[in-house]
Amino acid sequence: MRGFLGSVIRSAFGVFTSRILGFLRDIFIAAVFGATALTDAFFVAFAIPNLFRALFAEGALSSAFVPILGSKLKKSEYEGYSYLSNMVIYLSIIIVIFIIIFSLFSDKIILLFMPGFIEDKEVIGVASNILIIVMPYLLFVSISALFSSFLNLRGSYFIPYSSTALLNLAMITSIYLSYIYSKNIYFLAWGVFFGGLIQLGYILLFSCRFGFKFSFDKESITDVKKTFLLIVPSIFGVGINQLNFLVGRVLASYLPFGSISYLYYANRLFQFPFGLFSVTIGTVSLTELSKNDSIRRFEIISKSILSIFLIILPASLGLILLSDDIIRIVFQRNQFNINDTINTANALKMYSLGLLFFSLNMTFTKIFHSILDTKTPVKISAILLISNIIFSLLLLKPFKHSGIALASSLSAFIGTIIYVKLISQKKLYSFKDFFSKYNWYILKIILSNFLMSIFVLYLYHKGVHVLLIILLTVIFYLVVLQVFKINFKEVLR
């Protein structure tokens, strides 16, 4: 398969490989360590390099780096290789400085992210030590992201996305070793360190096989500086998006032990469809928009929106309707008890309410990035951060940790409204033309999801096992789409 559909499927398959192993990793974490103050400590510490990973790797950097690298590779391979090589050097220097600073002041930095534990010196000490171990992961994953963009431009999507599977394998191995020897959570931190190192080696190996050679040209340094200047506003934008999740964890630190872990486990299940489809579609869209002229922009963006409605809408409904049983099957065993299941499922329902809007926002952000407008998404992200904080504070007392998840979904909904309005005003895309052309598609998809929801509830009340419900529902949904003369390939072609 060629073009957009082939790229999405190759990307999705790579993400799927990684996500399956990620699921196994989280299942093992829940079984061995449960949802406790120590898991709260690990998840907060691990979230810190992941925050900067979004800044230096997958989010902000790619928005400016991909279009520039793409144009240089078109001119000559040597220019592209030289630009990429210099980016690796300069980015590594910046990140090493970050790692040193965060390692020296790890205890103080941890307190910024979990202030509710200020009186619990033991938990803060554990989180501080874990942070020192996992911070080098930021360097490994950031360099991997540069080469992943190179592979994307070479038409390889499976390899970059599947590379995360190696991180998950390393963490699973570390959990197994922890279970055998001492159930020490530090094993998990070392799994992150070595997993990131292995992931980098994997990406470098295939980049070289796709023709990359380290080259150094002083002229490309100018383009490197231009890239970092372009990503400055985008860094704030992506950083604000990440802060939306971190704000929740900070507030959850004031709730009973395990609240941070509930949000983490729920968010991991939420991220499965989001990462598998939404992030994949957004990444492919940015790459395709960077390579094609304005004539194809409408087609590419329309494909992205239709894909999200076709895939993400039923995923959202499924997670909401079956959250309790899904959490029970995935996590409830050993140290993870029924109370943990209920609390995690409640958070998952709230996150899932915003899945469609998170997904649309991902694609809308890429529209601005494709024309090197990184300032507009930053402004929108700032508004959403403020709204998320306000909603979180309002909902924290009545809904506890579930209120934090609901606040994120409400902020995402507001973001979608703002994006649609600005994209229309700037004439970057015509939603009027979209609905004029695809209104029947959207209506048929919505009706299909309504019928699917009734089918799910019917099976659920009949006492059918949740795994069988999921299988039968997928078949039912595909059949309904066929009846309405809609199929995935036709929409995505």
What features would you describe in this structure?
- This protein has 20 helices and no strands.
- The chain folds into 2 domains: 1-13 and 258-493, no CATH class; 37-232, no CATH class.
- It is globular.
- The model has no long low-confidence stretch (mean pLDDT 86).
- Helix 3 (60-75) crosses helix 7 (136-153) and helix 12 packs parallel to helix 17 (401-425).
- It is an all-alpha fold.
- The chain crosses the membrane at residues 27-48, 54-71, 83-106, 126-151, 158-179, 185-206, 227-248, 268-287, 308-331, 351-368, 380-396, 402-420, 441-460, 466-484.
- Its main location: membrane.
- It is found in: Cell inner membrane; Cell membrane.
- It holds the Pfam family MurJ.
- Tell me the strand percentage band: under 5%
Number of domains: 2
Rg calculated over all Cα atoms: 22 Å
Number of strands: 0
Q: Helicity level, as a percent range?
A: over 70%
Order of helices and strands: HHHHHHHHHHHHHHHHHHHH
Biggest sheet character: none
Give a quick summary of the entry.
With 493 residues, the chain is an all-alpha fold.
Properties at a glance:
493 residues; mainly alpha; 2 domains; 20 helices; globular; cell shape
Topology:
Blueprint (H helix, E strand, L loop, with lengths): L2 H31 L3 H22 L1 H16 L1 H28 L1 H8 L7 H14 L1 H18 L4 H5 L1 H18 L4 H24 L9 H34 L6 H33 L5 H35 L6 H15 L2 H16 L4 H25 L1 H25 L5 H31 L4 H18 L4 H5 L1
